[in-house]
Amino acid sequence: MQWERILDANLNRLNEALKLIEDISRFTTRDRILLTKIRQIRQELLSVKKALPWTRFIKYRDSQHDPGRRISFDSTPRHSITDIVISNFTRAKESSRVLEEVLKAVYPNISKKIKKIRFLIYDIEKSMILYFQKIFDPSIYVLVDSAYVKRYHLKQVIEVLRKNGATMIQLRVTNKSDREFMNYGRTIRKMLKTHDIRFIVNNRLDIALACGADGVHLGQDDIPISIARDLLGDGIIIGLSAHNIAEAKKAEKDGADYIGVGSVFKTRTKPDAKVCGLQRLRSICRSVKIPVVGIGGIDSSNYQSVLKTGASGIAVSSFLFKGDMIKNLRSLTAKK
User: Fold this and answer.
1) Domain around 20
2) Do both 121 and 202 map to the same domain?
């Protein structure tokens, strides 16, 4: 019968999707609470299967003639682990809904159990998607300043950065209109859409939202982190500049995802910036648990000393844009 085939196919799809989600949680997030919740859902599903004449469903299985057997079926590409997570949560939600609706006609009490599972899946999906949205690698954090990049060169710059080791890109725009700022951001967002490089907008929450950036970087005099979080949501990365241990600790307490500390050395980008030095950077790294990025005057001759302080990454700008960009960028990644 057709309903047995539908139930069999969707029980399999739901179980497969949940198992993949469990494994990703186990080996990637390593979040015990999240993993426990996923396993509880799988146990609930197992109890549902035991309550159904599942072995009878198998009799009606016709996998030899199933259109889904073709390699070309459901061939949507996956570009990242986030794509895989989203895809399998979609499968899990769709399957649970189909099971719930079909079971209403034949096993209404079990249909209610599937409904419970479906809503548990919604809860877990939110937690996992927010987790993956906020995964970032700050090791080579490139500051793309509008002073160095003309509009018609921007695509070329981003192409070079994404092919030569950049892990995060921050857009800083001065002396431009808001529309130009937004268009810069949208160009970068489009070029990084299928890459794991995180895109950060300096200061402007509205521009970050308008162009779909992964996060925003704030200064000490900018809008407070708590307000930024309320406006942007939990899935957005928020970085904050800090110049001493007190500011760093407060940033961590307020919910910053990373801290930018500088200027580590004298810098051509901000000639008037106060130099904090390696010792202060080291002290700040030891005082907080969130990632710390050293910024200011960093180049191929001194970046290793910055990383030795415990910093999770280095931020570079003028070193790249006032020289051979590809050569200089590779000089930072070759010895890592």
Assistant:
1) 2-133
2) no
